[in-house]
Design brief:
Blueprint: H1 2-8, E1 9-11, E2 33-41, H2 46-58, E3 63-70, E4 93-99, H3 106-117, E5 122-125, H4 142-147, E6 158-164, E7 179-183, E8 197-208, E9 214-227, E10 231-236, H5 242-245, H6 248-261
Parallel strand pairs: 2-3, 2-4, 4-5, 5-10
Antiparallel strand pairs: 1-3, 6-7, 6-8, 8-9, 9-10
């Protein structure tokens, strides 16, 4: 067990200040954010994406990274980091980027959720939304209460036109929508967010069906949630392909979402000193 954990976990210490003119800037006096990035599982290029995320976010704000990458490519394997009872101790935020839909042991899911229920901020990316489908899925799923949105699947990989919905959100203030390269648009299976969540962006996708007829879909693809009435959660279903994860606009969005989650954005969208 210990050997497997060591093999799966890579710790990175990165304290790089921001230097993008369009991204938030970090104060030289500000302590780096202590972030845990958990990723691995099915269907994605996680070895590449962990590099894109850690290096890209660190160009935008100061972060001290701990990365737990599970090389198992299935949907049933629990990331070894969670085997520790106090797995979240010492972190300011956890970025959930795992893809483990068939990890259904409610005791382990409750262990993962406990620190967030107690107030630990989170960022949930892409297939993190499709993880931990415990008994009662999808009508009553503890993981969906945490993420703030129920999603059960996605359409084809086609470009997604992203339009921001909120004019007041500190996260998206000043940002413009864009159209991705080929991406997966996750559905909103309940037709709406939970009452604790706020939509920030809508994704629209069109493609030719097997019969040649044009198909269309739209869904909320960026939002925030207040888990258990207090915990800040930023979430986006975008991020399947490397070209999206490495896009400056995506990295700006995720960085700002993380800064909001840890309370480092003011109401005007500026980084707090």
């Amino acid at each position: 067990m210990r050997r497997r954990l060591i093999q799966a976990v890579c710790s990175l210490l990165l304290t790089v200040g921001l230097f993008s003119t369009d991204a938030p800037t970090a104060s030289a006096q500000q302590r780096p954010i202590r972030a845990l990035l958990v990723l691995g599982g099915c269907c994605h290029d996680y070895p590449k994406q962990q590099k894109l995320l850690t290096e890209g976010i660190s160009k935008r704000t100061a972060v001290e990274w701990t990365v737990s990458f599970d090389p198992d490519r299935g949907t049933t394997h629990l990331n070894p980091w969670y085997e520790k009872e106090n797995w979240a101790e010492g972190f300011d935020v956890v970025i959930h980027d795992e893809c483990t839909s068939d990890v259904k042991d409610i005791r382990m899911v409750e262990r993962i959720l406990r620190p967030h229920r107690e107030g630990l901020p989170a960022v949930v990316l892409h297939c993190g939304m499709h993880s931990y489908r415990t008994e009662g899925y999808p009508q009553k799923t503890p993981w969906f209460e945490f993420t703030g949105l129920a999603s059960t699947g996605h359409g084809p990989q086609e470009p997604i036109a992203i339009s921001f919905l909120s004019e007041t959100s500190a996260i998206t203030k000043g940002m413009s929508g864009w159209t991705t390269d080929k991406e997966e648009l996750y559905n909103n299976s309940s037709g709406r967010l939970l009452e604790t969540a706020e939509p920030l962006a809508l994704g629209k996708q069109s493609w030719a069906g097997r019969d040649g007829a044009q198909q269309q879909a739209e869904a909320v693809c960026v939002w925030t949630n207040r888990y258990n009435g207090k915990t800040r959660v930023f979430a986006t279903t975008l991020g399947h392909n490397n070209v999206t994860v490495g896009d400056d606009r995506y990295l700006d969005l995720v960085t700002r979402g993380m800064l909001w989650a840890v309370g480092r954005l003011d109401e005007a969208g500026a980084v707090k000193p």
